[in-house]
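Consider the following assembly input.
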Amino acid sequence: MTELWEVLTEHFPEFSSGLWITFRLVAFAFVIAMAVGTLVAALRVAPVKALNRIGGIYVEIFRNVPLLVLLIIAFSGFPRAGVSVGQWAAGIGCLGLYTAAYIAEALRSGVFSVGKGQIEAALSLGLTYPRTMRRIILPQAFRTVIPALGSLIIAMIKNSAIVGGSLVALPDLLNRTRLVQSRTFQTDEVFFWGAVGFLLLTVTATLAFRYLEQRFAIRR
Amino acid sequence: MHKRHRWHLLLIAMLVAAATALAACGDDDDDDGGDGEETTAATEVEQFPANTTMGKIQEAGELRIGVKYDVPPFGLNNPQTGEVEGFDIDLGNYIADKLGVEVKTREATSDNRIPLLVDGTIDLILSTMTITEERDQEIDFSEPYYVANGDVLVPEGTEIASLDDLNGKRVCTALGSTYADTVEKEAPQADLRLVDLYSECFDQIQTGSVDAVSTDNVILTGMVIQDDTLQLLGLDFTTEPYGVGIQEGDTEMKQFVDETLTEYIDSGAWQEAYDEWVGQHLAEDQQQGPPDITLEEAIELFPLEK
Amino acid sequence: MSYLFDPDHWEWVWTGNNLRFLFEGFLVNLEIALIGIVLSLIFGLLLALMRISKPRLVSFPAGVWVDVWRNLPLILIILYLALAVPTSWRQAYADGIPEFFPDALQDELVLGAILGLVLYNSAVLCEIMRSGIQSLDRGQFEAAASLGLTYRQQMRFVILPQGLRRMVPATVSQLITLIKDTTLISIIAIPEIIGHGGNIISAASFGGGVQAPLLQVYLMIGLFFIVINFSLSRLSRRLEIRERERTGTTLKRVEGLEDQVALETDVAAPPR
């Protein structure tokens, strides 16, 4: 038992710095995911078929390719074509773009659930399409997708560990856990604390989203 | 069933069937390629007592060796043949033949090879492993089976010409290799980039993510073979004797491996393997013969830092 | 951009054995995914039954177990097990695995990978099954009870058949995630498609072949995954829509899984 606490106290700096990096990775990736996701969702619901297709291709690519493959393509592959990509860019970019595909579809179904009727009504009142989206549809759509967003953030927290374990090797919580284990060989204790770190993040996110759901979500 | 989703099931079924068919054909090829390598003439195989490692290996029917999968010409998982092959593997095959068993290869990176040996996942390490005193404390080594020299790989048009020039530059080498320490000593201002696999270093120097790669000259030669815009500096700044990794304290196994190694060299098989894998790629003046350095001398080259 | 489309950089696709080598690697991923999903279904069902059983002594620990495992990153679990699985278990696996199983699975390190996948996915599937069972109309439970069936009989003849059917689409959806997740085993040096891709890059030109550039090789690998996963996702979507049409019920969402979110959103708003 004392060993367990010893591992934590002796290596607290590594664990906490790792946790902090994981947090930042997820936070920045989320921003990208929301931004790109909204854009792609807009493409998907636009009345122009070509735009729908483009959005559709994005979604299918990023939902079906494993995150690890995306990371290798971005971090090792793009520099070959002349585009240099750093560790953070690769990590945030891949995690963000991957999740964006899911957010885009969630938003699209959110818009869908708001109903064509509202879109038509707004247009007939003389509002332009972008205005309609911005003022009427999207605010409602966002509130509908809060539960799905919560789910996706938890998925993102779990997926962020892949960035640390991959060749991109950001010093996140997983990466630091492996490092401490390779130095101390106390596998069980070290991974226990690594797991605790991740659970801290996922449980916090779950609770936060339950609260948001109760306050803001629209149920349809 | 709905017509359209029957189509999807059919597509998946076809893909799986095609894949299985290909795999079945593939396995046949593997079988052909596996045996019939350079075995010595059918000599009698000595049966070892059951309580020795050799005996246990004979009982298991296979010798599990940890080799590199991405370092031609020493250890390579060759896509064209589907085989794991190379200089290290040939030595492994020779040892296995002496025991009358098959070889089973597993990828052993510079980082995980010792743990894999220590926990028994593999029987021997044959993974371009340099003999050092530090490693000798965790495992045992055979007599040296190859001597490489450390060198530095640079892209053309570089201004790096010596070890000193590495200061301030980004240098790539493998986690847990002797080069990480050596470069740190010789060029303390160098920006060391450590990776799991040398193929990543190869990648990084090709894309300009690092300015130089440092490791054994034969590994670097393998890279030059594949990309002739890269060149070796020809520094030979270290002597790196490779040894076979053996479980700590297993003196019988070590004796067996050492004896087999002597036979390997004396019978000319070492030279054959060398010519096939290494010799044909190096210039005349860089060729070498079997190692003439002993294990003690090798350990002294890389003593423990205090 | 021209780097991407330069035909020289794609020559490796039809020279030598490269594409087939990739395919062989991919088979390892698919095989492990299949084994993973089958074992996870079995243990997931067990966990689900424990979760919904009445005595809290059973349902509570099961609940904690499930909530812990499904909220941890799979890669953490796999890396831990690769290090922590005792040698005796690994030996038993290496000795016990039948000959007819493919080569890659004979490797004893695979045990850690499979254990990890099953621990994680059985927890996930438990939640999916629970959601399937609980999405059934209350009426079913009451009707079954009023027919005088015991709890066990209710489960066996009424609830489980319907509930488990409800979760087939979600299971297919989880299979997609599982196939993507098998790439994680490349990190513990099991030779599957990513490992084979690396070998091709290191050595395609060794022995007189054509060099295979990294970007193209991994784009091809991505393509393999797109083909398989796209088909599976369409399949799962159709199954879910059919189920809804037949029974009029909707699966309650299982949190924290991106491909379940995908299934839910695809069904709520089918792509045109």
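Residues 23-42 of chain B have pLDDT under 50 and may be disordered. Ask yourself how this observation constrains the way the partners meet.
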